[in-house]
Each structure stands twice: as structure tokens, then as C-alpha cells.
Amino acid sequence: MIKLIYRDCCHMLSKTICFLLGTRAQLIKTAPVALACHELGLRTEMLWTGQHRETIDDLLADFGLQDLEKEALYQGPEVNSIGRVAPWAWQCFRSSRQSHRMLFARYGVIVTHGDTFSTVLAAWLGRKSGIPVAHIEAGLRSFNLLNPFPEEINRLLTFRWSDIAYHPGEWAGNNLHRYKWLERIDTGQNTIVDAVRLALGDELLEPPEQPYAVCSIHRFENIFFTGRLKSIIAAIEAAAEQVPIRFVLHSATRKRLEATGLLQRLQAHPGIELLDRMGYFKFVRLLAGARFVITDGGSNQEELSLLQVPTLIMRDHTERQEGLGSTAQLVKPDPGQLRTLIATLPVKVSRRPQIGGPSPASIIAQHLAQVLVKSC
User: Fold this and answer.
1) Residue spans per domain, the chain
2) Angle at 38 between CA 36 and CA 40, to 5 degrees
3) pLDDT by residue (tens digit) across 234-264?
4) Region 204-344: CATH code
5) CATH superfamily to which 2-198+358-375 belongs
6) Of residues 117, 101, 208, the one with CA closest to residue 158
7) How far is CA 34 from CA 228, 313, 320, 324, 362, in A?
8) Measured between alpha carbons, how far is 276 from 249 in angstroms, rounded to an integer?
9) Is the separation of the CB atoms in 288 and 200 below 8 Å?
10) pLDDT tens-digit profile of 130-150?
11) Ranked by mean pLDDT, which of 25-39, 42-56, 331-345 comes out on top?
């Protein structure tokens, strides 16, 4: 019914949903929403700010979105060092400011996600252009302005400049009460649920022939402070003495490991295999077969809670609730502590993950269709 109403009302006006994104995690979590929009016959486009460029085409192909219309606000190399942040941010800001009247004349709503610079830029552009801003994954908080930094500040700014908040559950919704103007839509779960469903399909997860663990470290506070990075690497080396580790390297992490001389040390370690980043579907299957995972990624925490894989989060704080107290725990970069934790981790039983409940992406797409109808 919504599909028919939309086509009757908005087809001639060519109103379009704009997804403004810049990172792999944002693309992964919004891809199921774009697919759900396509199923309703809604027009979609992507403005790409390009913090991450590595394997983006592979991700689009994984989700069947390789034909999605997209326009880049940034044309330079991947932002994998502090020195590239300022020129990247300035180019994105200048490009969007110069062209926002032309670009946004055709948009009925701007959809953004999460807590990055792209999220804030989307909210600012929507407010400046008078176009509704819809924020996916709204309401997550750490309640610590400096940790994670600058993500917590980015979220607060985005809350203030948004019009619609798609929040994943009651806890996140309660964090938005002070923003009275927001239209709050409870998606029940995070859209990562749909991404994992698509990645695994109906496959039964069989245990690997040899046990292994996965490591993924990339956050600013972990890789750009040399003392902490060295402590983390020492902890990972200690873990590799117990279980072989497959270390998936972000480009920024690889660059920092090279600069600090730690990359060669890891390459020489018999228990550590260094892997380049890969497509999302392949990565999820890698995670699903792991004995445990060491990570500092919020999205990984969410994915692994669905997969029921023990997760050691190398952070002091997390704004995510998924898995805490069951599959996930915060850990310090301490080799002794890590050895003790790994020895007591439960063994995951091989089974098909039970990922139930309504589709958050479908809930969002249905609502976006209504937003477009109102804009006609």
C-alpha cells in the first residue's frame, strides 16, 4: 500500500532518499535499509564523504548495491592518518557547501548513521537546506565526552540537528527524551541484525578444522598513542600463544604498525596471521568461526553478540549494550589479564545463529516512505 501511495504522489516530483555516508560501518548498517527502500520502489542515492575507500566496491557488491547512484564529496586517498583528517574534512565541507542547493533540491530526506564526521555533516546540511534529517542508530551514549572521542560529541550534535531518530531499543530511546522536537521511531534492534542475516543466509555454521581467534584494532585512542598501541600488541602476542590469531588490518592500523616498527614483529610471530580487510560477507563468516575475538569496534561488538562469539573489547568505555555481561567484556591491554580471560572463555557450540525479531531496516524504509509522501 505504501509503495502505491508513494508512486502515485511522488513519482513525478522525483523525490529521492539521500544516504550521506563515509565509513565501511555506516555502509554496512545502512545497506539493508537501502535494499528495503528499493523493495518499496523508493529512489535512493548516496553521497560519499570517503573516510574509507578500501573494499567499498566489494561491500556494495556483497549487498547487491553496485548500481546505487553515488556522488563523492571527497576524491583523495583513504583517511588513515591524523595528517589527512583536516584536508579531508575541509574538502567535504567545501564541496557540500558549494553544491548543497543543487544537490538537495531533489532530496526529500537525508539519512545519516552513527557518530562520525559524516553524521554531523549530514545533519548540518539538512538543517541548512531545510530538508528532514533521519538519524539511524540514534540514542546511543557513553555519557563521557572524551571517551569515545570525538564520537560522543558527534552524536550530541547530530541529535540536536536531526528531525527523525531511529533508535535501536528502549534504552537508546530514553536517552533522547530531552530532544522534544525529534520524531522517535523504535526499530527494536540495530540494523546490523539485517546485515548479519544477509551475510549468513541459511548456512549452518560448522566449526573450523583448527581453532583460531580474530583480532581487529583500529580506534584512534588505541593506535595513535604509541605506548597504548605497544601494550595492545603485547597482549595480542600473549593471546596468540594460546590460540592462533588472524589479525585483520585496517589501513590506518597497518600504517601505524609500520611507523612504530611493530608490523615486522607481528609478521615474524608464528601464532599471528596478518590479513587485509575483506568483503563484509566473508568477514562475518570469519567472525562466526572464531574461538573468540579481540576488537575495539562497536559494530563488531554488535555482530558478535548475534553470533554468540566471546568478545574481548579493547576499550575503557563502550556506548553499545549488546553482549555486555554475556558474550562481551571490556578488557585492558594487559597480557596477564588476557591470558587468564582466554583460559576461562566458554566454548561456542556450532549452530545456526538465531537472529529473530522484525527487520529494523524494513521498519525504517516504511517510515521513510511516509516521510517522502508528506514532502510531496
Assistant:
1) 2-198+358-375, 204-344
2) 75
3) 999 999 999 999 999 998 899 999 999 999 9
4) 3.40.50.2000
5) Glycogen Phosphorylase B; (3.40.50.2000)
6) 117
7) 38, 30, 23, 29, 10
8) 5
9) yes
10) 889 999 999 999 999 988 888
11) 25-39
164-182: average pLDDT: 97
Cell of 24: 565501511
With a cut of 80, say whether residue 89 has pLDDT above it.
no
Whole-number Å distance between alpha carbons of 122 and 137: 14
Nearest to 126 by CA among 159, 161, 166: 161
Return the C-alpha cell found at 291.
Answer: 574461538
204-344: same fold as 2-198+358-375? yes
Question: DSSP E strands: which ranges in the chain?
Answer: 16-21, 44-48, 69-72, 107-113, 133-136, 164-167, 183-186, 213-216, 245-249, 272-276, 293-295, 311-313, 328-330
Q: How far is CA 52 from the centre of its chain?
A: 12
